[in-house]
Amino acid sequence: MPIYKTIKLSEYTTVIVWKIEESLDELHQGISLTQNSVNRILNMRSEIHQKGYLSIRHLLKNIGYEDCDLFYTEDGKPHLKDGKHISITHSFIFSAVIVSDYEAGIDIEMNRPKIIKIASKFIADECNFINEPNIVEQLTVIWGAKESLYKIHPDGGLLFKHHLPIEPFKLSDKQTRGWIKKDNFFEVYDIYFEQLENFTLVYAF
Q: Do 136 and 187 fall into the same domain?
């Protein structure tokens, strides 16, 4: 399948989502890979990860980039050679990128009940507005928001529970705000979220 969804947030920021329905052979077609990328794919044991990696390259191509335009710094964060900001995510059958003139982060997660069991590891004051019956989706939004903010922060070392508070929201709002509060770094970001089938897409910028 080609592009599942394109979200044009502004002339400076675009989100693109791919639903992975192709075989590995099909995903290898129509894109060029650097030798480093070829080696990375060969070292991936999971076909899901291989497909996610390749689908991201198709998303890049769709917005005018090639694999060689993307590089990673030592902290594992992706960058584009032209200086634009990029964030990447994939989960099972979906992959997505956000490309912007400004700092941005993105995450997509399957809505799974097991997130309730680990909520205490990343939830702090957010517990005051979480409620039934959509607790799985709410927790997944919060996790995705904090993951997106984590990808934005330049220095790492963030604790989801302590450094990344998310402001109250309802699922129907489809947006909220999140903070990065660590040492002298104190910034607020707009958070947007939506449901894609049984997945939650979240992005921050």
A: yes
